[in-house]
Amino acid sequence: MDALNIGLEIIRLLVPPLIVALAVWIMNDYMLKKQEKARYFRLLSQNRNITLPLRLQAYERLILLMERITPGNLLMRVPPHGKTTRQLHAELLKVIRDEFDHNLTQQVYVSNEAWEAVKTAREEIVKLINMAFTQTGDVKDGLDLSKLILEVTIKVEKMPTQVAMDILRNEARRLF
Going by C-beta distance under 8 Å and a sequence separation of 6 or more, which residues neighbour residue 143? Predict the structure, then answer.
């Protein structure tokens, strides 16, 4: 019986410190997880404060790109006077390519859907210009090409650049 009493006495002495140690470990684990979450949200907030202006700037720049390559605005920036249709065609495509290349890195800050809309808009505008050039030929005055581009533009129900701008605006609004 003596051994049994000694065993019970040892258990009676060890159980309370084990329970206290377990409680301390659970509380410590809880506090560390809570601190980690707080640190994560603080970092997320700081990150948002840094990236939000960059993202907004990307949306602004891509909308400006779409405005600049819309045929009417593009023809205002690249006047057809004194150029053949071939010269005007080449210059319009170069301006579109340069504008797009200048804003290529903005895709990092927008969704895949928005970036695809921007690429599609650019491709559709290039197709429209190419189609008009094919119809006018390369021996006419550049003014003929610009007139045809504007005529085709008028017939388009909704310009692809407008579709892309709508997507970009909607995404930018969701940032707030």
Answer: 80, 81
Tokens read off for 161: 């650049």
pLDDT digits (tens, 9 = 90+) for 113-141: 999 999 999 999 999 999 999 999 877 78
Domain ranges of the chain: 52-174
| CA distances in angstroms from 125 to 10, 82, 92, 132, 155, listed in the order given | 86, 23, 10, 11, 14
pTM over 0.90: no
Are 52 and 46 within 8 A, CB to CB? no
Mean pLDDT of all residues in the chain?
Answer: 92
> What is d(CA 167, CA 161) in angstroms, rounded to the nearest whole number?
10
CA R_g for the chain: 33
Measured between alpha carbons, how far is 138 from 142 in angstroms, rounded to an integer? 9
